[in-house]
């Protein structure tokens, strides 16, 4: 899990470093600060389980086993990208890893994941679906409809709300009367749990229990993981100058960096050493170098492909 979290962090830091060169044209919604959630949830998933992501999809994609080279190539709009260079950062897909696709429509992945969970149940598999969404998507009526249907049919689905408190620039408590998203499923017999989204072990334990419950045929669960994105809603810059959040608030969350907290925990428990940590970082840096080299040398999307795969 530590390696997976560092891998997400370093990849996105590289995106921040190169974005200003204007070679990556797709908007990027960065996951920095939220890495523990996708990492810990994916630890209990298998390849055949399905995840459905959002516009902030990089961490989900990598944690589930998505191909990094294809993802970076997609950022550059190359033919070798995971969506053929036509989807961009917000529309990542890797069917081999159980990632049918992500969508930029707020809340749009929730009903799709619910439908996929129904299909998995009808097929008689023990596989599950995971619907990732943010606190902004909790404003959408489709969440209630999906929770209701999932509870009614006892579907094998985990609803994971990554509550980073802001829908674009709008603070949660200016949009919602209560900050208890995890209770939204109670009237539909969908149990909910609130976790510290920056605590890797807490997210892992809660997700593991929910996933095992779903595999046993006992139905859906809702997990609300409170966390914080370091960067602005979109792009590599921090947005405290806009006035909707303060530098003090941002710094307080940086002090609770999920990668740092988990690293310190594993060092204190003797699970990793400074030397093994250097090796992990070195391996990841090499992989990222190779992914960006692959993207740079990959061919552009041919003009004749512009009209393909369109309705």
Structure, described:
- The longest helix is centred in the C-terminal third of the chain and has 24 residues, at 274-297.
- The chain is an alpha/beta fold and 311 residues long.
- The protein contains 10 helices and 8 strands.
- Strand 5 and strand 6 (170-171) form a beta hairpin.
β content, as a range?
Answer: 5-15%
What is the overall pLDDT average? 96
Shape: globular
- Sequence stretches where pLDDT stays below 50 over 5 or more residues: none
What is the CATH topology assignment?
Rossmann fold
> Major sheet: size, sense and barrel closure?
6 strands, parallel
- CATH class (first level) name: Alpha Beta
**How are the strands of the biggest sheet laid out side by side?**
2-1-3-4-8-7
CATH homologous superfamily label: Thiamin diphosphate (ThDP)-binding fold, Pyr/PP domains
Distance between the termini: 40 Å
Count of alpha/pi helices: 10
Element pattern in H and E = HHEHHEHEHEEEEHEHHH
Radius of gyration: 19 Å
In the CATH hierarchy, the architecture is: 3-Layer(aba) Sandwich
Overall structural domain count: 1
- The count of DSSP E runs of length 2 or more, i.e. the number of strands, is 8
Class per helix and strand makeup: alpha/beta
State the oligomer. Answer: single chain
Give helix % range.
40-55%
């Amino acid at each position: 899990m530590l390696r997976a979290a560092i891998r997400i962090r370093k990849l996105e830091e590289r995106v921040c470093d190169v974005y200003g060169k204007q070679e990556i044209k797709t908007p990027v919604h960065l996951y920095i600060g939220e890495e523990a959630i996708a990492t810990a949830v994916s630890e209990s998933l298998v390849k055949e389980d399905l995840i459905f992501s959002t516009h902030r999809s990089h961490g989900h994609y990598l944690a589930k086993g998505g191909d990094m080279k294809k993802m970076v190539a997609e950022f550059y709009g190359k033919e070798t990208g995971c969506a053929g260079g036509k989807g961009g950062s917000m529309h990542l897909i890797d069917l081999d890893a159980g990632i049918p696709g992500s969508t930029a429509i707020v809340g749009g992945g929730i009903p799709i994941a619910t439908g996929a969970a129904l299909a998995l149940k009808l097929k008689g598999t023990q596989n599950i679906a995971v619907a990732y969404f943010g606190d902004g998507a909790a404003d959408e009526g489709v969440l209630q409809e999906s929770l209701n249907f999932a509870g009614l049919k006892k579907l094998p689905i985990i609803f994971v709300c990554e509550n980073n408190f802001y829908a674009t620039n709008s603070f949660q408590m200016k949009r919602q009367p209560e900050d208890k998203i995890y209770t939204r499923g109670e009237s539909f017999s969908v149990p909910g749990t609130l976790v510290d989204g920056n605590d890797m072990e807490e997210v892992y334990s809660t997700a593991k229990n929910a996933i095992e419950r779903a595999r046993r045929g006992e139905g859906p669960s809702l997990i609300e993981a409170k966390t914080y994105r370091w960067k602005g809603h979109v792009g590599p810059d921090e947005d405290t100058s806009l006035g909707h959040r303060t530098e003090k608030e941002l710094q307080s969350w940086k002090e609770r960096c999920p990668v740092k907290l988990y690293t310190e925990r594993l060092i204190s428990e003797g699970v990793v050493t400074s030397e093994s940590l250097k090796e992990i970082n070195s391996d990841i840096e090499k992989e990222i170098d190779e992914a960006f080299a692959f993207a740079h040398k990959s061919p552009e999307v041919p003009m004749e492909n512009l009209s393909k795969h369109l309705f």
